[in-house]
């Protein structure tokens, strides 16, 4: 395991985002931690996302009728999809989770020293909150904010955590991370550490990733920061296998998307008509996942239909892989002032801390 420190560019002026959301208040002074009362129990689970069922159907129809058909990767995570993803993280070929866990275990104290103790830990895509919980000891947050698409799922996870850490203020937020992050007043303003593990940043294009990180930087004071996991570029066979495993778990994960589309859209997809395809494209530095028609397939849904020719594909996911130096440069560009990276000995994966 190696660790290296990179002093980045000048500290950029703190960006004040204004999304017009009634849920956020903005402080001009960023020094002192905001004195915010402990939220009332009914405020502890906040869904800032609008009801999205209609939205989702429009989005799915648009993707399915586009010349090059696509479905957003956010639809993978229905109850079965979430369990299949959990199984993926245990596959021998899927090294990402294992290496990241190893880095946190081996360098936890160093990470804690670098990020500093106390403040608010904001967990983006928290899921079962397990990864953040493992860092509670070294980070000692005063407040923990779990953000995920489903506040429902978070509620159960937080129930257990509140019992184990009764003095920590905890809050669940239901939000789609593809949209600008809206933090309600209950999220304290002093020393925010955004936590974005798992290389989920890879689902954004590099341009979207840069905007996303700039947005996070704009939402913390100078004592705040970012702790992020990033999958690095490596040999194609390793990447191909990580997304096309021998047991076919990733294939099931990809195909299950069609079941989820059928539920949301009322469409007639039959998973038997489709084949999992996944490959690393070194020129775009991304793994692409597709579903490929095994034969001519006609799919219908209320108000629409499409015929897919044999071999035609639906693009379901991009997972971008970065070179460490490029990712560090991106962090500097969006305003972070000091970047520290921890990697494994093969440099397959990196955990980075960036000071706001
Ligand atoms: C959860 C987005 C990080 O891209 O590696 C795993 C999702 N897709 N296998 C990834 C995924 C296929 C995963 N992320």
Structural description of this entry:
The model is unreliable at 1-43 and 47-51 (pLDDT under 50). The protein contains nine helices and 14 strands. It is an alpha/beta fold and 356 residues long. α2 runs antiparallel to α8 and α3 (95-115) packs parallel to α4. The strands form three sheets. A nine-stranded mixed sheet has the order 1-13-14-7-6-3-4-5-2, sandwiched between helices. It has helices spanning 53-65, 79-88, 95-115, 130-139, 151-164, 206-217, 236-242, 249-265, 324-333, and strands at 2-7, 45-47, 120-124, 143-148, 169-174, 192-196, 225-231, 274-281, 286-293, 297-301, 304-308, 313-320, 338-343, 349-355.
Secondary structure: number of strands: 14
Radius of gyration: 21 Å
Query: On the 0-100 scale, what is the average pLDDT?
Result: 87
Fraction of residues in β-strands: 15-25%
List the helices and strands and how they pair.
Elements: E1 2-7, E2 45-47, H1 53-65, H2 79-88, H3 95-115, E3 120-124, H4 130-139, E4 143-148, H5 151-164, E5 169-174, E6 192-196, H6 206-217, E7 225-231, H7 236-242, H8 249-265, E8 274-281, E9 286-293, E10 297-301, E11 304-308, E12 313-320, H9 324-333, E13 338-343, E14 349-355
Helix pairs in contact: 2-8, 3-4
The structure holds N,N,N-trimethyl-histidine.
